[in-house]
Amino acid sequence: MMLRRGFLVFVPRLVGLLVVACCSVSIVYMLACTPKGDTEQLALPRVHSPTAKEGYEAILQEREEQHHNYIISLKKQIAQLKAELQGKSEQLKSMQEQNPDPLDVRLDHSNPEKVQVNLLAFLRAQIDKAEVHSGVKLSTEYAAVPFESFTLQKVYQLETGLTRHPEEKPVRKDKRDELVEVIELAVGNLNSLEGDSNTKHRVYATSDFVEGIYRTEKDKGTLYELTFKGDTKHQFKKVVLFRPFGPVMKVKNENVNMADTLINVIVPLAKRASKFRQFMQNFREMGIQQDGRIHLTVVYFGKEQVNEVKSILENTSKATNFKNFTFIQLNEEFSRGKGLDIGARVWKGSNVVLFFCDVDIYFTAEFLNSCRLNTQPGKKVFYPVLFSQYNPSIIYGHQDSIPSLEQQLIIKKETGFWRDFGFGMTCQYRSDFINIGTDLFPRQEATLHSGAKRSLNIDIPEEICRNLCSTDTSSSNPQRA
Predict the structure, then answer these.
(1) What is the pLDDT of residues 257-314, one digit of tens each?
(2) The whole model's pTM is what?
(3) Which whole-number Å values give the CA distances from 167 to 148, 208, 437, in the listed order?
């Protein structure tokens, strides 16, 4: 009992001591952790103090000095940055003067040595950019530029058209001269290397050439790898050559105004009134409504369906107020060459662009502009490559219905092919046709293929451009150009 009473008396005392200790610790902690005031900072004066105005003025003056110093510091930094920028600009300018941009190389006859040095540096840079010494990472296998192989007699090519076969002789003069030049250069290189030493070595000839491969990166150049026979049966010599493409050079800059350039579309025709109706629908939309600078000449052979053809012409003329057409009827057998010849010669106006067209051709207003832009009297004639469409009843036979004409005219390999072997469609000025066309279209059927070859002999280059032109091989689908 005594022990319990003593314990009960001691407990309150112990609790009181603990409370006092905690309060003491809290007071000490507050005193120690309270931040000290800035002794230099001016105390805010009381509102009713007699020195309140002077205190506020002192504070404002101090703040103003601080802002002034900050502005001075910013100005110094700006001046520093300007000086650094000027230094970098001068450094870049000096580097450009030492190594000018290859695209700025011009035919400066006043300093030909500098132009030659810059051009040589650019050509060497092209080798570094091309896949000669090292390859590049490609995103897909279709991005790889394939090689084509060749021998002394033939070229084996991957990209083939209807006139290009997987294996062919290089009949084109530029390609033949290119490969012959490369082989001869490689032979000369081998002989010059062998001649550097005093020991006697064999002399290489073009007959030692085994095979070669080449490919062209259109923005860099053409890489050639040529293999020659070596000293023994199983030894070979390999020569790697690179023909770099030079910098882009400005040739001329001219304005071309085609506002008054008229196109005379000449169409030889016999029967085929339904085809002519489809042709006139296209002619009305593209030639009359969209282009407006066009004349139509129809040379009709025979009497059958002639009234129906005339009626189509008259209805179109009335509906569109179109008077720029000529209808010529010949009571004889159809001859396309004769029809084109008569249609061209019957024109009595000024020099005009002639478009030799067929009734199953579909053309666009953009093509008519291409016809104007790619012809030049005395210098240039235009042979568009037509896209020949397959029979729509066969291509779309698995569908419920044949698509509209606009959907059929989409160019893809499932719907047709480029007719790059034909020269039946052409755009040329009438003066060129008259000057060279006397024997081009005799009084019998003739083709424009021979005419293209003849034009080369009189310095009128044959230009073949893949424009949006097409034709079909079926009788149930309108042809387009």
Answers:
(1) 888 999 999 999 999 999 999 999 999 999 999 999 999 999 999 999 999 999 999 9
(2) 0.58
(3) 11, 21, 35
What is residue 355's predicted lDDT score, i.e. its pLDDT?
96
In terms of pLDDT, which residue wins out, 167 or 418? Answer: 418
Alpha carbons 175 and 420: distance in angstroms, whole number? 19
CB atoms within 10 A of CB 351: 14
**Any idea of the CA torsion for 82, 85, 87, 93, to the nearest 10 degrees?**
-140
Distant-in-sequence, close-in-space partners of 299: CB < 8 Å, separation ≥ 6: 266, 267, 268, 269, 328, 330, 339, 340, 342, 343
Phi, psi for residue 76 in degrees, rounded to 5 = -65, -45
Q: Determine the Cα–Cα distance for residues 115 and 118; give it in Å rounded to an integer.
A: 5
Q: How many CB atoms lie within 10 A of CB 234?
A: 6
Q: Which two tokens stand for residue 398?
A: 């698995």
Q: Are strands 361-362 and 167-168 parallel, antiparallel or unpaired?
A: unpaired
Cβ burial, residue 302 (10 Å; 0-12/13-18/19+): middle
- Asked if 377 and 351 count as a contact pair (C-beta separation under 8 A), the reply is yes
Q: Retrieve residue 470's tokens.
A: 């097409």
* More confident position, 450 or 49: 49
Dihedrals phi, psi of 341, to nearest 5 degrees: -65, -45
**Burial of residue 384, with CB atoms counted within 10 A of its CB: 0-12 exposed, 13-18 middle, 19 or more buried:** buried
Q: Are 387 and 273 in contact (CB under 8 A)?
A: no
Contacts of 304 (CB under 8 A, 6+ apart): 270, 271
